[in-house]
Amino acid sequence: MTVACKDHPKTTMQTPLAADATSTAGTAQAEQQQKEVCSCGSCSPFLLVLHPLLNTWGFTTGSMQLPCLLLFILPGMWAHPESSQKLHLFQSFIFYNSNFVDFSGWATLEDIVFAALQKYTWDIIYLQPWVSPALPTDEWENLQNLFKIYVHNFILSLQDEARLHQIPYPFVFQCMTGCELHPNGSYTKFYRLAYNAHNFLSFDADSSHWKRWQESELAVHVEREFNSFTDISATLQHLLNITCIDHMKRFIEYGRAALERREPPVATVFAHMRDPAQLLLVCRVTGFYPRPISVAWLRDGQEVLPGPALNTSTILPNADLTYQLRSILVVAPGDGHTYACRVRHCSLGTRSLLIPWGSSKVALGIGVAFVVLLTVAAALIGTVWYYRHRC
């Protein structure tokens, strides 16, 4: 069913609540939604999205008069330091032209992607078995209806802004909001919006202030408009300060087994000769979970300090929800030292993995001896072949 407001007949939305319009209950629900949405002051696309969201969390829109651009504050609710509990919601809108937009949205608890929006239907997909039971069914239904309305009108509003500000296609908007709960009971929260992979706007939930990160005409306009809407800022404060933490605690409670699982690392050490003067010792560590890990090189039993000879990669994800990294140490062939890679991880308890690499002099000697043996073997084979075919 399409909802159109009498005061603004050009403003319409496809409402998922009308999917059951063949029944009396479905029709009544759709009609009630239309009355509520169209009573929101200017009936702008932003209010079409904001109104059901505020109702979901016990707020009312009253007589707020807001522009479509305020859709930007609703991408999601949920963040990070190490050992903190965090919930993220990400959304990405790629506007290829005025007729085609590629949308994706997903949510992470800690580092587990636990839910996503289906690309074309915008239905919520539960990616872990514990996700659906974490919230009541009617609350999931409200969230799903909210997301469908929000995404539809978010796209319409950004298309309008592209025409108004003559934004060249293609362009990308990325949204991330979040909160994090620290071990000492304190928490932080944030809102970030990016335009073409550059910081665009952020919201400080403590001071209730919007800050732009660009000097473009669009960013200046949006910052000024956002800071003039104190009611909306107060609402966003509530979502970040209260709702976000409450939802995160529920998901953590139901997903505790997945979050607390332990997968031990598997480590291998090998060498690569870069040139006659440099030997690269590589320690590859993979298959571990959770993410925090310590990898160090030992020279004659002493830890090698950070420096130009030591290069450790960032921690990268594997397809099976574990992690991997590499640590590379540059040494001089034949330097006479012994080397080992030491790995520490919570799955190992108080133990450590210690993978040795023998003396570089011995390793080099073995390599030279191997080359000599190959040369001698080739010479013998050549001699035998020569004498057999000489006759």
UniProtKB/TrEMBL annotation:
Record field: transmembrane: 362-387
Stretches assigned to the Ig-like domain: 264-345
GO BP of this protein: antigen processing and presentation, endogenous lipid antigen via MHC class Ib; antigen processing and presentation, exogenous lipid antigen via MHC class Ib; immune response; positive regulation of T cell mediated cytotoxicity
Signal peptide boundaries: none
Presence of the UniProt keyword Protein transport in the record: no
GO cellular component, one term: extracellular space
Molecular-function annotations in GO: endogenous lipid antigen binding; exogenous lipid antigen binding; lipopeptide binding
InterPro entries xref list: Ig-like_dom (IPR007110), Ig-like_dom_sf (IPR036179), Ig-like_fold (IPR013783), Ig/MHC_CS (IPR003006), Ig_C1-set (IPR003597), MHC_class-I_related (IPR050208), MHC_I-like_Ag-recog (IPR011161), MHC_I-like_Ag-recog_sf (IPR037055)
Keywords: Glycoprotein, Membrane, Transmembrane, Transmembrane helix
Protein name: Ig-like domain-containing protein
Organism expressing this protein natively: Anser brachyrhynchus
